[in-house]
Each structure stands twice: as C-alpha cells, then as structure tokens.
Amino acid sequence: EKYKEFFKDYPNLYLYGEFLVKHTVRTYEDLAWNKLYIFDVVDFANHRYLSYEEYAPILEKYDIEYIPLIAKLDSPTKEEVES
C-alpha cells in the first residue's frame, strides 16, 4: 500500500533498489531480510537523479526503506574511498 500511495503522488519518480534475501552473505540481522532497500531515485520527467537529500525525506514520508548515506565525497582520494 505504501508504494501505491507513493506512485500515486509521484508518478514520474522511478525507484531503484534491491530486495534482500539470504544467499551467499548471511551475516545481516534477521530483521533485515526480505525487504526492499532503495538506493537511487530518478525523476524521468526532468531526466535526472535525485540527490540523497532530496529523496530521503520523500521516502521517509511513505515509510519506504532506503540505503542510508555513508559518506558524500567530491573527487575523493583513494584513502578517502578506502576509509
């Protein structure tokens, strides 16, 4: 139902995500499995990806789970990426 409401209100947004099921890696907490996690949102009407700061509040409004921002890097060094 939350996805129906989301797409009714935002028909031009496309969600990209991954549905987490047990496979090779099995070290996630039990509550993490069998859920869809969004990692990108595209506005096809305006031909652009939404920034994390734009889409996170929208997804939260509909209780849609997403991958949290770990770091925001601009032209990072190898060491910054590794950390």
Structure commentary:
This protein is an alpha+beta fold and 83 residues long. Helix content is 28%, strand content 23%. It has helices at 2-9, 52-61, 78-82; strands spanning 13-20, 35-43, 48-49. Strands 1-2-3 form a three-stranded antiparallel sheet, with no helix packed on it. It is flat. It starts with a helix and ends with a helix. The mean pLDDT is 94.
- What is the overall shape? flat
What structural category arises from helix and sheet content? alpha+beta
Instruction: Determine the N-to-C terminus distance.
Output: 39 Å
- Separate helix tally: 3
Describe the sheet with the most strands: 3 strands, antiparallel
Which runs of at least 5 residues are low in confidence (pLDDT < 50)?
none
What key attributes describe this structure?
alpha+beta, three-stranded antiparallel β-sheet, 3 helices, 28% helix
Question: What's the short version?
Answer:
It is built from 3 helices and 3 strands; from the N terminus they run αβββαα. It is of the alpha+beta class and 83 residues long.
Q: SSE layout and pairings?
A:
Layout: H1 2-9, E1 13-20, E2 35-43, E3 48-49, H2 52-61, H3 78-82
Antiparallel strand pairs: 1-2, 2-3
